Amino acid sequence: MDRPIVSDIDLKMMERCVELARTAGRHGEFPFASLVCNGEGIVSEALNRVDRDADVTRHAELVAVSEAQRVLGRNDLSDCTIYSTVEPCAMCSFPIRETRISRVVFALRSPLMGGFSKFGILQDARMSDVMPEFFGDPPEIVGGVLVREVEKAWRNCNPLVWAVIRYRGCFNGNPAGDACVHQHSSGRARRFNWRQIAHRIISKAPRRRGSSVEVPAFEGRPNSQAEQPSVVNARPGGGGD
Known about the structure:
This protein is an alpha/beta fold. The chain contains eight helices and six strands. Strand 1 (33-38) and strand 2 form a beta hairpin.
């Protein structure tokens, strides 16, 4: 690892992430924010939606990656960079690898939950070596960008929660300088795009046409405790009065 040169585009996109994080805090969410960028253009951006949607899977990175695929009409995001206020967790890291995002830029490291710092998902080359049809090469990692600004957004959102996070070591950064974490992409030149080949094979496989997929309705429904029939004077061996 070495200290990378943070580009003006990186700073601009991370500043936008900080702005989104402040917005998330004002809407009752923790200040997680993320965006997907293609060159100098923002493809998608997202706030954390866990509380608003009552869904723990609605992390900012997942929402941003999902929206980027919809906007671009493809699931290959190899020409894109994802920016985030906090290092993507393990759950968010798998879609990053599967969509082949080439760069991951964030502010705060996540030693307990991070897909880079803790679980090694983002830099795991074996995933793409064994299953190149489904996982892209490890992306370039740039961490520690605008640490002070992101820490301030967290502190302003909820000082008590931020104090607990820092005390427990959940997130950390290096305020002494930006881009304190860096790992080059270990991508290799491949003769074939195995994922495209696999997709073509699947798309040309014989299938029924002209009929949509219908999911049968579930006729039964769980009864609440109040709706469950009560057993009166039940006796061992069956046969109530």
